[in-house]
Amino acid sequence: WQLIKENSNICTDDEGIVESPVLQDTHTAEMEERLRRKLQFFFMNPIEKWEAKRRFPYKFVVQVIKIVLVTLQLCLFAHSRYTHVNYTWDNTVTFSHLFLRGWDITMEVNNYPPETGPLSVYMIDEFFKTIDYAAAGYANLPQAIGPYSFPTEDNTMAPMSLCLYRYKDGTIFGFNESYVFNPEIDTLCVNLYQNVTVNGSQAYLREKDIHINFSALVKAELRFAIKTVNFKAAGPITAPDCYRFDILIFFNNQDHDGQMTLRLEAEPTRLVCHGDVEFIKNSQIDDALRSLLNILVILICLVSFGLCARAIFRAQLLRVMTCDFFKQTYGKDLSSDGKWEFVNMWYIMIVFNDVLLIIGSALKEEIERKHFIADDWNVCSLLLGVGNSLVWFGVLRYLGFFKTYNVVILTLKKAAPKISRFLLCALLIYAGFTFCGWLVLGPYHIKFRSLSTTSECLFALINGDDMFATFSIMSEKSLMLWWFCRIYLYSFTSLYIYVVLSLFISVIMDAYDTIKKYYKDGFPQSDLRLFVGPINPNDFSSGVFRDHEEFEMEVMSLKDAIRRLFCGWKASSRGPTGYTSLMPKASTSTINN
């Protein structure tokens, strides 16, 4: 064993590497037994490790604490985010009623199919009346029910900004089919002050010698801001939130089809409130508790990250050690299946979700401390949501230690390669139907207007959703396309519902039957599992796993361990016996003697 320790220190140059003879039986037996015990302990579950070595399951306890803290954090953040998003949407609806001419209550809810067409203007006079309506509503802001204020220090009306995006030259002479066109877009912005409500925007622009050529107008944007305070979020220890809404009324004339669509957007920005001093002091309790929870989540994720990263690193060191043993003892490499036994995808997933949760918690803390000028709610919710889902998925690892629950995991693992190949073939057929439907039916069917909506419609048909409406909505302008739509939809639904889905289920059931057979007749064993062999139940109480002797890889420095890990791949194909010794040339005579 001392000889093996001398031969496994570091990588040397090509000139310092010589081939070593096969170990003597006594050395081989001793090293084999120690390595087998090490591998048996490596493949144990936390309960077996406790019985074998009285090792406390730190990673399991950390994961339990993490799932509780992360779920609590997510629930609190989800409530805050819902309040924030709902408050923003409600104010957007209010602003649409106050500033958007022609807005109706039927437009507040997104129905499918839509009950009304897009809000649009069709006449030049309507364009200026829409601007005048918004300016008048902004001037009468104090009359609104909502607690809205102007963004100025003295609460007086701030100027509105009207920006016109026009082609540099765009004149159309339709009577003789001619035009003058320069595609370069020119931008002109002008401030609309309070006096614009007296004479109207059209006269106001004429006074400034601004003439709008609607043949060349691409789009127009009307911008202004409003400040408000949200009392709804306030509670016994929660302070109100202050916001500034940057409002945009967008006139879209990019298609130049005579229909200029309107859209209002309100982008909220959270501000620092200057309210009642005593109430602010009370609200600091809530801020402190939320900050404490964020810090605890970050700390527990750092501990989880460290434990799992350490386990992944030690597993790779053990892999290198096992590969060296197989080369030096049996003169062959460990199989690829055996090498993959050392890759724990559960730990990799936990490390990934720890990174997501740490970044998300830090971002959440910054949002709650109002350190961001613009709220990054969506990014934060994405990080915390994905991280939390992976934390819950990680619980399956511990359920997998029980036979009843492990069947599901093994079935998915067994069926994954076949499912991937099957989905690839099904996806090619699906892509053909998607592109065909988008091209042929797009101009005549609302569900096929874009590539994404076409794919969504076909996926809904696979699940039997809204079939009759998909058939009946098709326009009858072209009889040929009407019949093509019927043949297209019947072919797709028949192929995917009766054939593809049935084959998909049969692939999973075949994997399930295979796993059941494995439980009955035994699982196929890799060369690594055959070497490890079964564990004698008496070994748990005999103390054979509790000795304090460790392999040299576990006591060497981190630098040497990393060098040993990467150098293990370097010397894998030298020498006629299929393995390479790491012993210097000077020690060869010692071995032969």
UniProtKB/TrEMBL annotation:
It is a multi-pass membrane protein. Residues 85-273 form the Mucolipin extracytosolic domain. GO terms for cellular component: endosome membrane; lysosomal membrane; plasma membrane. PANTHER family: MUCOLIPIN, SD02261P. It is found in: Cell membrane; Endosome membrane. Residues 383-515 form the Polycystin cation channel PKD1/PKD2 domain. GO terms for molecular function: NAADP-sensitive calcium-release channel activity. This is Polycystin cation channel PKD1/PKD2 domain-containing protein. The chain crosses the membrane at residues 292-313, 342-362, 382-401, 422-441, 487-509.
